[in-house]
Design a protein that fits this description.
The chain is mainly beta and 344 residues long. The protein has one helix at residues 294-309; strands at residues 10-13, 23-25, 28-32, 38-44, 55-75, 78-86, 89-93, 98-101, 106-110, 115-121, 137-140, 149-159, 170-174, 178-181, 184-193, 196-197, 206-213, 218-222, 228-235, 238-240, 243-245, 250-253, 259-264, 269-276, 283-286, 289-291. Strands 3, 4, 5, 6, 7, 8, 9, 10, 11, 12 and 13 form an eleven-stranded antiparallel beta sheet that branches. Strands 2, 14, 15, 16, 17, 19, 22 and 24 form an eight-stranded antiparallel beta sheet that branches.
Amino acid sequence: MSNLETDPQELICEDEPGNGRVEILEPREVPLGGPRAMPVRRTLPQRGRSLIGPWCFVDHYGPDPVAMDVPPHPHTGLQTVSWLFAGEIEHHDSSGGAAIVRPGELNLMTAGRGIQHSEVSVSAGSTSGVGSTTEVGLTSGSGSTGGAGILHGAQLWTALPDEHRHAAPFFERYVPPVIEHQGARVSVFLGSLLGQISTARAFSPIVGAQVDLPPNTEIAIPVDPSFEHGVLVDSGAVTVDDETVPAHALGYRAPGAETLVLASGDEPARLLLIGGTPFGEQIVMWWNFIGRSHDEVVAFREEWQRDVIDGQTDAGRFGRVDGYDRGGALPAPTLPTVRLKPRR
């Protein structure tokens, strides 16, 4: 999913030191898509923490009746990780990638030096009025034009290390097996955990997994002590190392732990476990771009506007998307008038 904010923050992000306990990162609600927008719950980035390993962006949404129609839009310097609990999304990108994103299936798009892609909820069909350049993206069922279906899931980004961020873009799909661990069900969609290894390509030491806990169940998961970890609670009452993590919040655990103890309450619980070694690089995030400086992000925006929005060339950084016939690409928002300083 694109970051559809019309006034996105410009962020200069740095790793923040942990304090040895589970920290609770509360979500903030971000409306995407205009006056009837679907709200998403964003837990990364935020003022207190910008990255967890290479994970730099976490949006959690639904279950909501939504008609999604996101026109072609750009990305640089990152991977988009699409993971659904319910619903289906049709994906097309300028590397030639095309897929239906379904629950339990990883769709991983590596932007590298630059890519563009579109996303349309399958149930939206040919719904008109959704996805215009003035009111674009995710329109909730109440007062919408119709065609909405239930969408529920998470959109995550990982930052590419400097040595890989200018690589050619590509797209992958991976369906992880569901294994049982101490009574829980676990799907490892990125990296490795519990002897499971994802075939999807990662560029930093990393883990991404869904964990489903039956009621009143406690499990211990061996983890790499060099990793920092985040636990995003989708549903249910969850504790991480005896610390309560509220629904929709992200529990952060600094490097040093060899085991994470996860427990549910009286209802089933579902969570995403993400992590990796501290990224160790400063990044600048604005809209759908990741770079290393303000000036670099400005240049990405100028290329997008010139090559794609103004239609000067299909042979530039972002190429072209085939398979989207609902209108033109998404113009970039206006850049802020000030430069943000690095966080300390």
